[in-house]
Amino acid sequence: MFTGIVEELGDVVAIEELGDASRFRLRGPVVTEGAGHGDSIAVNGVCLTVVDFGDGEFTADVMAETLNRSSLGALAVGSKVNLERPMALGGRLGGHLVQGHVDGTGTVIERKPSENWELVRISLPADLTRYVVEKGSITVDGISLTVVDAGPDFFTVSLIPTTLALTTLGFKQPGDPVNLEVDVIAKYVERMLGARAGTGTETAK
To answer: Does the predicted TM-score (pTM) go above 0.85?
Structure first.
């Protein structure tokens, strides 16, 4: 489990094509400190498993399903990525509950800079709109953000200087893809209410 508080802006060092998967080598001295084989690290909001690590770098295998359903497939050597280690039990929940399971991708539509912050409009897939509400939480490229406005096919977020300086959203331009993860609590509530109404499938007996 993650919190959507990016610890480090890392770099893609190498990408090895493995047929139906890819092996990424990423540089992240902060997130690799104390890392071990099999640990999880979120890369642009996608939970990946550490295969190997050393000298401030780590490798992770990314299967075709992940490449197709997230923006990781668009990464290239030299790309910047948001990195976060899992939250330790008893740690502070600085953002919100983030699983690292991408629900879909959006596209940066527009950026409106102001003196001390910036408003960013992002497209929203139709099957995710019901989970996004004004002042609710959403994860964009692994960043926990508060929704400013929720439209029929878009949402907006306000970015403070720290977010602009220390994450990929500081330089994403209109047309660039971003990973989206909606609030998991909303999905559980929908499932439970649907089951009670007879429109969902109860898995627990």
So the answer is: yes
Q: State the burial class of residue 186 (Cβ atoms within 10 Å of its Cβ: 0-12, 13-18, 19+).
A: middle
* SS3 letters across 23-80: EEEEECCCCCCCCCCCCEEEECCEEEEEEEEECCEEEEEEEHHHHHHCHHHHCCCCCE
CB 49 within 8 A of CB 62: no
Tokens 């004004």, residue? Answer: 134
Can you tell me the distance from the alpha carbon of 117 to that of 151, in angstroms, rounded to the nearest whole number? 21
The architecture that CATH gives domain 104-190 is Beta Barrel (2.40)
pLDDT, tens only, 33-86: 988 899 999 999 999 999 999 999 999 999 999 999 999 999 999 999 999 999
Q: What CATH number belongs to 8-84?
A: 2.40.30.20
- The amino acid that residue 91 corresponds to is G
